[in-house]
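PROTEIN DESIGN WORKSHEET
SECTION A - STRUCTURE
LENGTH: 380
TOKENS:
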């Protein structure tokens, strides 16, 4: 059994202690930023290493060991809070986990981040997993009112809406925003290029580059001083790569040679600082998604003051101010994408959340989670 060194005083008693949470995972940046900035709050167990559950994970938490019914049957915790990683488990395995939690009297809190998995071409498996988890959860959380409405419509369950906290470290974000302001041209100086970025990553099934990129090439070409930068991982562009798309790779290299865009090919950025450098260098980040729900990428852009152009699918526009365009699995309207980029170029909006707003938001989100955990445990 996992041993804990903290006081095991009764939750809700005269000497309240920290609630012990089996957070799946605990090392993800979203989950880390649910904790109070100055420490305290719930105690989240460290992620067990997938190859050695007796040890804590330093970097790799996936696939999450905490979702094994065997682990849940013996570990010492008050409740389980599931965020990510259940796509590694079959619906039957999730049913076994739920049964184990019920047998031990351990409540399940589930934050519904994704109503459609961006890594799956079909929604079938993710729907089946949600059909186990959403009805079984003692408490549901989601990030936007639209997602809460969809949850109510599909399962008849109410979800508490708590916003996505900051992604970039608060001090780091503040420094990068100051650096952005210092780079802005002064009166009479030559302006730097207006940089529109699209990052294809490793080409998730949710992405629609064949639709979005030709429109962006034309739209950006019409904007004075504008540059279209397309980033992609080597596994997409290089022949033999795990996600290689020969037609897309050829088109990108041809457009790069012709000067229609700047193609940047690199490996996955293991160090988040490279990602923050990239996002902070952009004026606009275009999300090329044809399906999805919420976006941590969007939140990182808000931290850094980068304008987001987001598709109409999912609930991205409810996370914060964005410029929108029409793209989902049924429709794409190129004119709306061109108009959004043109507006960003014309108005240069700065809609990101300030460091002070993010700091206050984190305090409130941490407080609400702690109260919610204690409420669930009292009800149990």
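SECTION B - SEQUENCE
RESIDUE ASSIGNMENT:
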């Amino acid at each position: 059994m996992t041993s804990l060194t903290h006081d095991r005083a009764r939750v809700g008693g005269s000497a309240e202690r920290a609630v012990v949470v089996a957070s799946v995972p605990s090392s993800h940046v979203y989950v880390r930023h649910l904790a109070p900035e100055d420490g305290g709050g719930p105690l989240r167990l460290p992620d067990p290493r997938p190859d050695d559950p007796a040890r804590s994970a330093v970097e790799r938490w996936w696939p999450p060991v905490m979702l094994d019914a065997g682990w849940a049957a013996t570990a010492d915790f008050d409740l389980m809070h599931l965020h990510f990683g259940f796509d590694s488990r079959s619906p039957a395995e999730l049913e076994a986990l739920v049964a184990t939690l019920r047998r031990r009297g351990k409540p399940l809190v589930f934050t519904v981040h994704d109503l459609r998995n961006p890594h799956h071409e079909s929604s079938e498996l993710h729907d089946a997993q949600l059909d186990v988890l959403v009805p079984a959860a003692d408490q549901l959380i989601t990030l936007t009112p639209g997602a809460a409405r969809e949850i109510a419509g599909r399962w008849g369950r109410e979800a508490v809406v708590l916003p996505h906290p900051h992604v970039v470290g608060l001090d780091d974000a503040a420094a990068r925003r100051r650096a952005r302001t210092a780079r802005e041209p002064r009166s009479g100086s030559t302006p730097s290029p207006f940089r529109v970025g699209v990052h294809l990553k490793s080409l998730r099934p949710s992405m629609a580059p064949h639709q979005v990129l030709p429109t962006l090439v034309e739209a950006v070409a019409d904007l004075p001083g504008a540059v279209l930068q397309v980033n992609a991982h080597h596994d997409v562009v290089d022949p033999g790569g795990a996600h290689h798309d020969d037609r897309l790779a050829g088109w990108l290299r041809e457009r790069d040679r012709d000067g229609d865009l700047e193609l940047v090919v690199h490996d996955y950025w293991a160090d988040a600082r490279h990602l923050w450098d990239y996002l902070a260098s952009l004026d606009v980040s275009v999300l090329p998604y044809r399906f999805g729900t919420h976006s941590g990428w969007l939140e990182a852009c808000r931290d850094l003051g980068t304008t987001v152009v987001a598709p109409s699918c999912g609930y991205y526009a409810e996370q914060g101010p964005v410029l929108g365009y029409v793209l989902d699995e049924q429709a794409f309207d190129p004119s709306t994408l061109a108009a959004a980029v043109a507006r960003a170029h014309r108005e240069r909006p700065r809609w990101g959340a300030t460091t002070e707003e993010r700091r206050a938001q984190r305090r409130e989100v941490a407080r609400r989670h702690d109260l919610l955990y204690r409420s669930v445990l009292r009800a149990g």
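SECTION C - NOTES
Residues 1-14 have pLDDT under 50 and may be disordered.
The longest helix spans residues 355-379.
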